[in-house]
Amino acid sequence: MTREKLVALIREKGSYLCVGLDTDPAKLPAHLSGDADAVFRFNKAIIDATRAACVSYKINTAFYEALGTKGWEVMEKTVHYIGADHFKIADAKRGDIGNTSTQYARAFFEALPFDAVTVAPYMGEDSVRPFLEYEGKWAIVLGLTSNKGAQDFELQASGEGLLYERVLKTVSGWGTDQNLMFVVGATQADAFIRIRELVPGHFLLVPGVGAQGGSLEQVSEKAMNKDCGLLVNASRAVIYASGKEDFADAAAAVAGQYQAEMAAYLQRFNG
Amino acid sequence: MTREKLVALIREKGSYLCVGLDTDPAKLPAHLSGDADAVFRFNKAIIDATRAACVSYKINTAFYEALGTKGWEVMEKTVHYIGADHFKIADAKRGDIGNTSTQYARAFFEALPFDAVTVAPYMGEDSVRPFLEYEGKWAIVLGLTSNKGAQDFELQASGEGLLYERVLKTVSGWGTDQNLMFVVGATQADAFIRIRELVPGHFLLVPGVGAQGGSLEQVSEKAMNKDCGLLVNASRAVIYASGKEDFADAAAAVAGQYQAEMAAYLQRFNG
């Protein structure tokens, strides 16, 4: 999906919500049996219920790989079910030497119809570049993450700044704001001003709202740019809004609340 | 596999060779059709041919994911086919927030019988720790990699040293030399002396010999410790030794040459 289409979707829906399908068979409502087929039935119901309120879905590959071959098949069915009108992210945190990253890019952009893959920057340019070579596809590179471990390396000094600042500065030179986004956790609200100095035009994928405690209002105020420039992800807060038979209705309600809040922020912070 | 068993295998075989199954359907000998089933037949023949000369196999997950669900199934069949007498590495470069890394650990240690997973350190402690919580299983964390991109971040200043030095120092505190190894590329031979100051006891997984140009002799001289402490990986140099019908014999011959060289280095550098 091109940036132009993504921005149009955001404007049309008044939403920059990404729903995270971190579907754990152990957390499904009791009336669904906890196997891989149940994960697909659950995803399908969640997608149907939230489709109108969000512009993007993020599939966390770990939850599918944990189910073995059958899990990969469920991921495949799920990403096809989402269809062409949502921005489909493989939250896979891949990254390896060039010839291997090329294979990962094939896995998510050719064998599967994802629009974007999250990529870890540690191994440098040749590990990221293969993801940038597809028309209308995106690499979403880890910048500053929402977890406690961000302190261990990302927030450590690196030259004159911090490591995540070096990553944003360096990686943004490898692509454009048409094929490259960054992950910045919502729990790092204070950092967004600095981040927008470094990458004013890029879209940011922002996890950590909801279960992890980040504030949607603060993120939106500090990080929105003229094209919105944000995809804010909520996973557990949406998909596990209810653990009962009404899980899809409950997910629709929570996604709808996010959408309404986002529509207001798009007015307030983005003119 | 415990460290004790791994060291015993190395002594018994006079080998610290890891054969990398980076099997690309496009590079199979012409007499094998280039589909996922052919990848398994190829792997099976390579494993049978090299089993005696190596102590470990490394499956590069990217090459299997690029084939979709069928590829994941081939990976599953391959790792089962290897069996219990080799150290089985999922070269997956995973790493995410804690609850997600827990799912990746399940994928490779429970759904699949791998002994180890390669892990990217960027996101810090909670992204690595779930891989350390399995008896007899290992996290192999990226230290200094063999590719050009190592220059972009790994070899940049971080506090008083370089980033990869900080990674080795910090991460080695999260586990022991019984559940934690590091990836250090063979092309970084000059760095091995410094690396052994930082992590004297840990095993190192060393890719980059062969196709990437690293020297087995230099690596062995500089990095071997009293328990050998090395798993040296060769992928393309072994599995694509011949592109014809004799590919398995050719792989056996190359693996045998590595083994013979390694047996000599075990004598020469390790007493």
From TrEMBL, chains A, B:
N-terminal signal peptide: none
Quote the catalytic activity from the record: orotidine 5'-phosphate + H(+) = UMP + CO2
Q: What class of enzyme is it?
A: lyase
Select a single GO molecular function from the record's annotations and give it: orotidine-5'-phosphate decarboxylase activity
Q: Which Pfam families match?
A: OMPdecase (PF00215)
To which protein family does this belong? Belongs to the OMP decarboxylase family. Type 2 subfamily.
Protein name (database record) = Orotidine-5'-phosphate decarboxylase
Lineage of the species this protein comes from: Bacteria, Pseudomonadati, Bacteroidota, Chitinophagia, Chitinophagales
